[in-house]
Write a structure and sequence with these properties.
Mean pLDDT: 84
Distance between the termini: 4 Å
Number of domains: 1
CATH architecture: 3-Layer(aba) Sandwich
Oligomer: single chain
Strand order of the largest sheet: 2-3-4
Low-confidence stretches: 121-136
Number of strands: 5
Radius of gyration: 14 Å
Amino acid sequence: MDDEDLVRELVARTLREAGYRVLEASHGAGAIGLLEPRSNAVDLVVCDLVMPVLGGKEVAEWIRQHSPAVPLLFISGYPRAYLEAHNLFDPRVPMLRKPFLPSRLLEAVEEQVASHPPVERRRGQRGPDRESPRSTGR
């Protein structure tokens, strides 16, 4: 999820071309609305940290409460010092700095997906709307 249309479209296109199923949202509240009914079918959430309505930190807190096994990858154009000063940085979540190349995005996504077992193995079942073995919500 990203509030910048161009970034969101680039991320979505890159991931789809790599074989991922992508859910898109322009702010955190929209992302939670997408995640809530299908969190057991999402293998990764790619999330901008600074957005209107609800930011990445709030989305991460919601995920930790409702779907703690779902990993996150933050993206942000803000420097780490700014994020730390505004209590937005979370050292537990990997962060990719904007701007980034599509190849770097894919590398970061693959690292996160590889380091966490697929949802089916975590839950012991397939999600209701699981369309492919590679799925990411954003």
